[in-house]
Amino acid sequence: MTHRNAHAPAPARIGDPLSEIDTPALIVDLDAFERNIARMAAKVSAMRASGGNASLQLRPHAKTHKSPDIAARQIAAGAIGVCVQKVAEAEALVDGGVADVLVSNEVVGRSKLARLAALARRARLSVCVDHPDNVRALSAAMVEAGASIDVLVEIDVGAGRCGVPPGEPAAALAQQVASSPGLRFAGLQAYHGSAQHLRSVAERQQAIAGAVGKAASTRAMIEALGIAVPKITGAGTGTFELEGASGVYSELQAGSYIFLDADYARNQAASGSTFAEFEHSLFILATVMSRPVAGRAVCDVGHKASSSDSGYPTVPDIEGAAYVGASDEHGVIRLDQPGVALAIGDKIRLIPGHCDPTVNLHDWFVGVRAGRVESLWPVSGRGPGF
């Protein structure tokens, strides 16, 4: 599969200075980005060495970046593979050379299942289920394609989204998977998504303690049926240290750590924890297009360039500046300090509120080091996620 937006021109050329990047553009501070990758690899290695779980692995979530180029760098640093949420993302990552992909979501519909089965013939693929009907349809698609796939039973550990209830319902579904042709029962998906953005350390600890208990008791119930549970996978950037230390989880799915968006930065950090160690590395480069009055600037980053589901972007480099309003093509920036030297045509950096959907609005990552463009990576898996 080629890049879905291959017709879209890159906003810069290798070697261009920051001032020559066309905007709106998604830029990556390569030094901070590389430090984030190295820090996560070191943290997972330290958790393995601590004796809590010698088999603990990192499987970062590629819905954050949708980029084979970034996935390759994570795998080179020790990740076992990646997660995605959609078949289209899986296709883009496998086409880009990633050999081990977990679709950490349910895949429903004949055409999607056929594509998943075709992909399972080309790469090590895993997928989640939470309903008997989906298990039957998935098995039929694999048999028809002459393929097989690892299957995780997703349990609801507190997020109230997808997932069969823990305990007996999950065990019954695991039995069905284990006896279905073309399917290999591979363990449990136990991701507590809503816990990732609980602001206090205590709230996150409480939420994950509940998730760990549900995952452990469900594993025991399945094993009592004589079915091995090879792994329990889950966790995110907000809580991965808790799942990693539990001795129950064997894979960690943190993804946003590579970029650290503005919303994650609002989480309270314990001494030496996630939010004190990862750095902002993803920015939206904007151009000032209007200075209508002294206390206001308007830039070219609006809803089409930055997701606002987790709040507006922040303005890190201008003291007292706040992004306060957006329309399709415009972002309004309030300037609280008098005499700010900000002119029409100036370039400014914004930190997106939520990195995943913001990345999905762009065709390219522009990698910058020492003020110049060093790399251009297509956002190969972007789009609505069919």
Could you please describe the fold and organization of this structure?
- It is a single chain.
- By secondary structure, the chain is α/β, with parallel strands linked by helices.
- It has two domains: 18-29 and 277-378, Lyase, Ornithine Decarboxylase, Chain A, domain 1; 30-266, Alanine racemase (TIM Barrel, Alpha-Beta Barrel).
- 30% of the residues lie in helices and 22% in strands.
- The protein has eleven helices and 16 strands.
- The protein has helices spanning 30-49, 68-76, 87-95, 110-120, 132-145, 168-178, 201-223, 240-245, 262-265, 274-277, 355-359, and strands spanning 25-29, 57-58, 82-84, 100-106, 124-129, 149-154, 183-189, 231-234, 251-252, 282-293, 296-299, 321-326, 331-335, 347-350, 364-369, 372-378.
- The strands form two sheets. Strands 1, 10, 11, 12, 13, 14, 15 and 16 form an eight-stranded mixed sheet that branches. Strands 2-9-8-7-6-5-4-3 form an eight-stranded parallel sheet.
- Strand 7 (183-189), helix 7 (201-223) and strand 8 form a beta-alpha-beta unit.
